[in-house]
Amino acid sequence: MTASPSMPHRNRTPCAVTLAVIVIALAAIAGGLWLHRYADRPADTSHIDYSFSASGKFTDAQLKAAGHKTAEVFSGFTGCTIERISYDEHRADGLLDLEDQAKAASPSYTSAIYDAYKRYGRDRIFIATVDFTCDGSDASLSAGEQSMTDYLYLDDDGKTWVEIDHGNG
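The structure assignment produced for this chain is given below.
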């Protein structure tokens, strides 16, 4: 008895479907493990170098608390390692001066930083530079080394820091 040309095809179809299902299942499991391990992990904040200039505005305890608040804010940057958080009072004053210049040049100018600075005063605004490296697993952050600025204000209790904004600039 001779097998028809379609017979081998029928015999392979269940095998091919089973193989395809197994490959898809393995890919889903691998993707799930990757997401669990990398995509949902918070930023590594275990080895941050904190660097603060001398300050005429804040005590050492306030600076330390502000640095830790910034680390808390940036801990949500999945796939990143926060390497350095620094505060330079001269730089911070210069950035606040730029806010004043922008407002003077355009009276309709507004920003969250300007509004907080005017509401709480210059001596309660902390502006940190945050240096970090990301692995590219978060689509909103590019892979590699980068830097952002974090803006905080000191609450009325003199201990609690509240984020105003963060970003490139």
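Interim note for the steering committee: The radius of gyration is 26 Å. The CA atoms of residues 131 and 147 lie 4 Å apart.
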